[in-house]
Amino acid sequence: MVTYFSEIISGLWSLVLGLSVTFVEFIRPNVTVQYPYEKLEMPERFRGHIQLIGDEEGRPNCIVCMMCQRACPSGCISLSGKKEEGQKKKTLNSYILDFTTCSLCGSCVESCNFNALEYSKEYNLASTRKEDFIIDLLKRLEEQNS
Amino acid sequence: MSVPIRLQPDETFILNVGPQHPATHGVLRVKMEMDGEYIVSAETVIGYIHRMHEKMGEIKTYPQFYMNLSRMDYLGALGYSHGHVLLIEKAAGIEVPERAEYIRAITVELNRIASHLFWFGAFVMDLGGFSPLMYALQDREYILDMLERITGSRLTYSYYRFGGLYNDIDDQFIESVKKFIPRMRKSLKKYHKLVTGNIIFRKRLEGNAILSKETCRKYGASSAVARGSGINYDVRRNEPYSVYPEFNFDIPVYHECDSMARYKVRMDEIEQSLRIIEQGIAKLPDGPIMPKKAPKIIKPPKGDYYQAVETARGNFGIRLVSDGTKNPYRLKLRSPTYSNMHLFDETCTGLLIMDALAFMGSLDLVIPEIDR
Question: How many structural domains does chain A have?
């Protein structure tokens, strides 16, 4: 009989203790960010989708060595280039990233020996159309330069 | 007008829990034969998100497959990556700088805490308490922010490399970890006050779903499931790897064999992980994070290799059969949750359905890791 009542009292006390925790939390300041109105800064090493790095004149550093294409586990990079007359290096014609299969592992950026690729800070990438994720990186670089 | 179906007194019916059900935490289906609210028999059906990770391991090169390991378990990804890099380093004979190993241990333990915090929140939510999830996520967010700053990602880190690490940690990271440890200890006290002592919580879990030692051994259970049943087994202690022998930590073991014991083991593990991180930060040596001669093309010599690690969910084993080429001949992944989950069928016979779901929560299932 005594244990029965003591259990009721200790049980009720445990509920009161729990409620005191939630009450203390209730009067504490907010920890959330009101997303569309406030935005967080992405850290420096944030891995967004890749983008090309251009030189001072805005031309891509890429020399079409195809290392990134070979390193990619999902085959989502396709690029092409050709050798202009009188030039030693190849110039980039197109660089298409199929972001639908990309898993942001960063193998391409690490495999690049010519400082031609970097991560973007892009994270707002929701869309209802699949075509929006086929990203033309050369066009993106031109837009960034202009 | 529809006539309600009347069951005969001794008739049972089949209840499908899942594949889309909040209590299963993913696409797991449980086919239950019910007698009223009591379970007569249950069968777990898996394979809804099978992604052929093992087959992918055979067709991809070693560095290409590496990032798949993070996708197996989205809550404790670093533990799985750790197993893979350790295996390939063992197979290819790559030496890892000491600093890299220490950073690996620190980040794995941080990730383990994050995983346990999420499990804690989700488990209490399964039992009907919502606010602990919010508090647990708040602490977990702190860890994710720290890891995001150094790895560049919040869940699928891909932070380790064969031979070392992708990036070094900085002073700001160390400072934030130092700040995090007392904060987490304070939070743990709060959780114990809020949840562990709660009479409803205790009444529901104490004596619920007794798992004997023999059952755990039969199914190859590990992690808190085995340690809650009195089996003192932890890969970090039993088959030491990395720099774990250098650390002083305890393996929490409880002998009650019920869901409460499994809960207590995980909560104690958070404290032990904090201890490991504390020691890791104090002992952290200077030096490089990648060896000077890290091979660019990984071609392990012919042979059979195995590496087990203790992840947040238990004993994760990875076996490699190499034929000396750039791709493995066979890569077998032994996932801990797969073994832990299969206990469910046998143990839940005769339980009330809400007790069975509480039991399922205490197993800490991550479905992508079962199906892999």
Answer: 2
Is there a domain that residue B6 lies in?
no
Q: Which H/E stretch holds residue A50?
A: strand A50-52
Instruction: Name B254's bridge partners.
Output: none
In a domain, A79, yes or no: yes
Interval B185-196: pLDDT, tens: 999 998 888 888
Residues of A in contact with B153 (CB under 8 A): 46-47, 104
Asked whether residue B8 is assigned to any structural domain, the reply reads: no
Does A75 contact chain B (CB < 8 Å)?
no
Assess if residue A23 is contained within a domain: yes
Query: Hey, is the C-beta of B63 within 8 angstroms of any chain A C-beta?
Result: yes
Write the ipTM.
0.83
- Structural domain span for residue B18: 13-371
CA B251 to chain centre: 16
* A chain contacts of residue B194, beta-carbon cutoff 8 Å: 17-18, 21-22
Q: Which residues contact A57 (CB under 8 A, 6 or more apart)?
A: none
Look at A87-101, B69-83, B163-177 and tell me which has the smallest mean pLDDT. A87-101
Q: Which amino acid is at B291?
A: P
Structural domain range at position A71: 50-145
